[in-house]
Every structure is written in structure tokens, then in C-alpha cells.
Amino acid sequence: LQQLPMEFAVEAQKLISVSLEGSVG
Fold first, then answer.
1. Is 1 helix (H, G, I), strand (E, B) or coil?
2. 4: left (phi over 0), alpha (psi -120 to 50) or beta
3. In this predicted model, what pLDDT tens digit does every residue of 1-25 receive, in sequence order?
4. How far apart (Å, rounded) are the C-alpha atoms in residues 9 and 6?
5. What is the pLDDT of residue 25?
6. What is the per-residue DSSP string for 1-25?
7. Counting beta carbons within 10 angstroms of the beta carbon of residue 25, is it exposed (0 to 12), middle (13 to 18) or buried (19 or more)?
8. Measured between alpha carbons, how far apart are the two ends of the chain, in Å?
9. Taking the CA of residue 25 as centre, how many other CA atoms within 13 Å lie in the half-sphere pointing to its CB?
10. How far apart (Å, rounded) are the C-alpha atoms in residues 14 and 23?
11. In angstroms, rounded to a whole number, what is the distance separating the alpha carbons of residues 8 and 18?
């Protein structure tokens, strides 16, 4: 992965976390 802005990284992490929770739960 290329270096990305901190904001984008945080948003991406949130989206991944939510998607994972949605898939599991």
C-alpha cells in the first residue's frame, strides 16, 4: 500500500472494522 493521508487511513480502518463486524454479526 502507498502512503496515504492520516484521515484516509482512519476512515478506511473504520470502514473495514464496520464491514468485519457486519460480516461476523
1. coil
2. beta
3. 567 788 898 999 999 999 888 877 6
4. 5
5. 62
6. -----HHHHHHHHHHHHHHHHHHH-
7. exposed
8. 28
9. 6
10. 14
11. 15
Query: Which residue type sits at 15?
Result: L
Structure-block grid coordinates of residue 19 = 464491514
Whole-number Å distance between alpha carbons of 13 and 15:
5
Encoded amino acid at 17, one letter: S
- The count of residues in the chain is 25
C-alpha cell at 21: 463486524
The pTM is what? 0.50
Side chain identity at 7, as an amino acid letter?
Answer: E
